[in-house]
Structures are given as structure tokens and as C-alpha cells.
Specification:
Elements lengths: L1 E3 L12 E5 L7 H17 L3 E7 L2 H5 L11 H10 L4 E6 L2 H4 L3 H10 L4 E7 L12 H11 L2 E5 L3 E2 L2 E2 L2 H9 L3 H8 L3 E8 L4 H5 L4 E3 L10 E9 L2 E10 L10 E6 L10 E11 L7 H35 L6
Helix pairs in contact: 5-6, 7-8
Length: 327
């Protein structure tokens, strides 16, 4: 996949492209369906599949006091988009100048002149242009003038929940990571540098890895069953998001205890996948009581991991048993 951050980098013209536009924060199931449609359209057209997104998030420029915590930093978003088979990723620098483009100027200057769009796929609630003046109907009118077709993806729901970035953030803020994971179609994860801890866990409870500050949204404070990736290896783990009230009020920390791991960690980064919320963070009367609770958390986490592996094996066997039919 080719990645450009300025349309002037497109030395060779793009012909008959299939395009989608948006922030794509989270790359959830609805985003992935849009990307699948773009790839399919590009193949039918014999053209290029293109995604146009923005950095930073527009809200950080237009309404920074209300800007949400992001779900996917640019590096992760790029990796997830590439996995869906997109050929060209355009990451436009969102600034005041770009925000002032009218819907007509955006469509003419970017979709028509630069990308030579033949098909544009967007969500049903898509808005674009200065003061969000353009919607899917406006885009369709501009497409009729500029030579591209428009297809709007209907709202997608999972178990009655609307699939959207705001919904994912809502469920994370409530600690309901399992529902957030369903809307994403994968475990929600945060990635960052490994920070030096205060030594409390190592001295008084259990040794942990500490995640440094991240720009991503964290789940609600509490204890979670997780998987932690270090040096390319994914470890079953228990992760605490909170302030360590048993030892006084600390700054918000994210600490992961790797289950069954022995040895030293020689790594700079870690990534934590959140699978299930075990409990609230509690202030215990002493470190020993906390240590006992951690052992119970570990036991529940091990049972959860064994169950998930068993279910995963059954699903894999079921998929292999499905007969393949040629159309």
C-alpha cells in the first residue's frame, strides 16, 4: 500500500479510482465494510482503491476542548487499513485551510482533479466541507457533475448496538470492553513505551510491566483480562488501569502482569489487548490482601484463556468442515 501525506506527491495520475473518505478512527466493522466495498469497486473498474483520511482528528483543530481521545494512532490505523487490501492511503493534514473548503471545492479539487474518482463510498451519516455543509445527497449531486457515482453504506448494528467510533468510546468509558471488541471486530488495544514503575508491585505484590503515557483512550479504571504483546510475543495477562489506592493516590497507571512468565523483559514497547473486565479497582487494607486478590484474578484469567482457546479450536474445526462450492 502506498501512503501519501500530500496530494502533490501523486506524480502519476490515479485513474478510475474507488474512494472512501473519513476519519476512520478505530477501523471498526462499519469502516471495514466500507473498505471492502472500495476494494471490490476498484477491481470492477480496473482502477485504484483509495482511502482519504485526516491527521490530526478534525475536532482537535475545530473544537479542541471537545476533541475525543483517539482509538487508533496513525501508525495502527495505517496497518489496519493495509490489511484490508487498500492500494493508496491519502493522509491529509487537517488544518484551517482545509476546513474552509466548501463541499464543491473539496469534491472538485480532491475527488475529481487529483483522484479521478469513478466511485465514492461513504457512510450514511457522512458530512464534509466547510461547517459540515455537505452530506450524501450533496455528494451525489456533485458526483453527477464531476463524473463519479456515490454509494452510501446503511447503518450497521451488532447485537442491537450501532457500530460507530463514538459507540466504541462509550463502551470503553464504561469498561464494557467485550462489546467494544465486537464493534471493532478485534480486541481493543493500546500500544506505547514501557515505563519504569515505582517498584510497588515488585516489592509488595507481583512484578508488572508499566505502560507509558499514550494518546489513545483507555478503558474505565479497573482490572481486566488481557493479552500483552512484548517483543512480538503475545502473553496472557492481567492488567490494572487505575491509581493504586491501596498504596495512596497515584497518577493513572496501566500495569500488566504476564501470566506464567519467567525471566527479564528487554523491550522498549508493549501492546495490551483488552478482552474482559474482571472488577473495579479496590482499596485493600494492606498489600497482602491485594496480593491474594491478584491471585484470584490470575485464576479467573487462566480459566478465561483456556475457554477462549477451546472455543477458538472448535470454531476453526467447524470452518474446516464447511464444504467449498465453486460458483
Amino acid at each position: 500500500m502506498r501512503v501519501v501525506r500530500d496530494l502533490s506527491e501523486l506524480r502519476e495520475p490515479v485513474h478510475k479510482s474507488a474512494v472512501t473518505i473519513g476519519n476512520f478512527d478505530g477501523i471498526h466493522l462499519a469502516h471495514r465494510e466500507l473498505l471492502h466495498r472500495v476494494v471490490h469497486s476498484a477491481r470492477e473498474l480496473g482502477g485504484t482503491s483509495v482511502i482519504v483520511t485526516f491527521d490530526p482528528h478534525p475536532a482537535r483543530i475545530l473544537a479542541p476542548e471537545h476533541a475525543p481521545k483517539i482509538l487508533t494512532p496513525v501508525a495502527l490505523k495505517t496497518r489496519l487499513i493495509e490489511q484490508e487490501g487498500i492500494e493508496l492511503l491519502v493522509i491529509l493534514n487537517f488544518n484551517r485551510e482545509l476546513s474552509r473548503l466548501s463541499p464543491k471545492e473539496f469534491a472538485a479539487g480532491i475527488l475529481v482533479q487529483k483522484l479521478h474518482a469513478a466511485m465514492v463510498h461513504v457512510g450514511s451519516n457522512f458530512r464534509f466541507g466547510h461547517q459540515r455543509a455537505g452530506d450524501t445527497a450533496v455528494l451525489a449531486e456533485l458526483g453527477a457533475q464531476g463524473g463519479f457515482n456515490v454509494e452510501a453504506l446503511p447503518m450497521i448494528k451488532v447485537r442491537g448496538h450501532r457500530v460507530s467510533s463514538s459507540q466504541v468510546r462509550h463502551f470503553l468509558s464504561e469498561g464494557r470492553v467485550e462489546i467494544a471488541d465486537r464493534l471493532l471486530g478485534r480486541p481493543y488495544s493500546v500500544r506505547g513505551a514501557i515505563a519504569e514503575g515505582e517498584g510497588v508491585g515488585h516489592k509488595q505484590t507481583v512484578p508488572t510491566l508499566n505502560l507509558g503515557p499514550v494518546e489513545q483512550q483507555l478503558p474505565k479504571s479497573g482490572v481486566y483480562i488481557t493479552r500483552t504483546r512484548v517483543q512480538g510475543t503475545l502473553h496472557d495477562s492481567v492488567t490494572n488501569v487505575g491509581h493504586k489506592p491501596t498504596f495512596g493516590h497515584h497518577q493513572l497507571t496501566v500495569e500488566s502482569f504476564l501470566l506464567g512468565f519467567r525471566g527479564e523483559i528487554d523491550a522498549d514497547e508493549m501492546e495490551i489487548e483488552f478482552l474482559h473486565r474482571l472488577r473495579d479497582e479496590i482499596k485493600f487494607p494492606n498489600p497482602e490482601a491485594l496480593k491474594q486478590q491478584i491471585q484470584q484474578d490470575v485464576g479467573r484469567s487462566l480459566k478465561f484463556s483456556r475457554l477462549m482457546k477451546k472455543l477458538g479450536g472448535r470454531m476453526a474445526r467447524a470452518e474446516r468442515s464447511i464444504p467449498v462450492r465453486n460458483s
